[in-house]
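ok so I'm stuck.
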Amino acid sequence: MDGVRELRLVTEGGTSIDYDHADWGNARVSCTATAPTGEPFLSDLPYTSATNGWGPVELDRSNGEQGLGDGRTLTIGSQASSKGLGVHSPSTVTYYLGRTAPVSRPTSA
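replied:
not stuck anymore, here's the structure
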């Protein structure tokens, strides 16, 4: 996707308790414009706004309980990720990407 100025990651509630959270593992953005530059992980960038359905947005951890840093290792299927975001639906995490940036779709579970 080219010409992106803002990136918004959104999770919406599923129909059961088994599908009410998301781990955005190894999510990166590739920018050649103003900050950020290179391909930083989203968990290394400051977000401009965030809402989370349960507790805080977790950086490099899955969503845990109400406390910051109480999540576990980010895991999508059987693949563990050391970098990423842990959220619970409903949630929205928004990043400002500078002028414009090409963005590839992150993986979530």
